């Protein structure tokens, strides 16, 4: 709560869950710590804010990590409690909890907040426990141990002792046994008797009993049962016993509102809209069978355009249909690239997005996502364009933290910070947001990207890796409003990308084969091209463990002039791109069937329609497929690449003169 105030929030109410029987100290709960609940009634007067209390009727019925609404589960008591708080105080916007490391507890608080339209605040999340303990003591929090359950902690010696007294010993236990100094592993529980938030009074514990739950000789378990206590007024020598419950305290009874999650209904006109625009829809699909990208976009004209909401609904409906057609649904999606024509309409895009992709539809975790404004309309496309990365298994590991914290920017909604699948970590697009305030850095593009780098590293650390050593691909999306001088500094100083992809191999030494040179002649001599030294300057590649092959191919305006001949320039460029990509795959023992995605970024300055450019590249791939020494592709009924219009692109943020930039990702299962 002190952190909440530090970051500009106001405490308007307290909420507490306690046992049905006042004489019971502790419940067999996976979720709640109740030891010392008899004293909590005094907090309302100490802080002069209302306290809402509810007796826990449910039990731990849903014990999987990610929570789904379950009747008679103890989490539903929290839903009823917070529903009543919100009913009585409609102005509340957020709920703060003290989660430091428990995903189990954090996910349940986030689930309830999501259902109630509240924001979860968890400013202690992922913070260093040793520093946290020091900060708590330094900031005047007087908290006593009310439960111990760990080696080195003795109920008869340590219950009732405050944190300041226990700090040296807790640090010693950490060094000796690896204990959590803040008790996050269940080593101990505390009860606060005084802190700066207690402006009216502090709590004095007069008498207590030590109750031994387990006399284990190594790690005995015991709790402190408060017998009598009183409030000591601050600024007033008079003190009194809180026998008569204050009017600030109220008990929440009953079952609360209907706890069933409301199902979002689609607009009735969406199906008709899709049928009406089916002739404008275009689909592309990568070659790999078990992990692949599907892309959907709309051709646009002044007559057919209806707006972002309608275009996005059409594209999402078609993608949903395509997934079902291949035997998949949204739970199989790892990552979503959401491209829109105008970022000022982000709220409209998000509102439409959450009608289709929900946490209920994705029980193994919602996809990670990046949302980018692109010159779609200038390129002759509709106002929404989506690419999804799909996997045919359920082995993904998703990191989805919706709570606002000091750790990394929250993802409030059905999109996650990162998704790990087959050792590849797909990280959501990272902005230069200050995590606890969720405000953009105000010092300009360089400050934003430095913050984005810090945020990316925090997420990487959750997967025991680092962007400095594990990154295999970075893509920087730079606003057209960024000044040229800032772009130069950005490249020199930060070298940071906003959308990282990392390789995370557990318990295995990773062999980086980036520098391996296996260039040869043979079948690389196609369309009259033969390997030349300058070709290497066009391609940046990384091959790791023989499992992942990433290549970025850049065609600048200068190179285009070098390639031009009697034919149209773009036809030559398309063949050269396909030749070099095929060569890169082949010489590293990959095939087109290993390709999960091929993104072709093109500059709108070339003045060619997407339809025309697509036909040019499709023709180049068909020619490759027909060559006797080419690598055969299964099907070219749909393009195997995604065309992405940009205002500019390049290997350096200071030089964005690429006409074509191909981004290839191949994964060998």
Automatic annotation (TrEMBL):
GO terms for molecular function: diphthine-ammonia ligase activity. It is an enzyme of class 6 (ligase). It catalyses: diphthine-[translation elongation factor 2] + NH4(+) + ATP = diphthamide-[translation elongation factor 2] + AMP + diphosphate + H(+). Residues 229-267 are annotated as: Disordered. Residues 25-200 form the Diphthamide synthase domain. Its EC number is 6.3.1.14. It holds the Pfam family Ribonuc_L-PSP. It comes from the Eukaryota. PANTHER family: DIPHTHINE--AMMONIA LIGASE, DOMAIN OF UNKNOWN FUNCTION 71 DUF71 -CONTAINING PROTEIN. This is Diphthine--ammonia ligase. It comes from Arabidopsis thaliana.
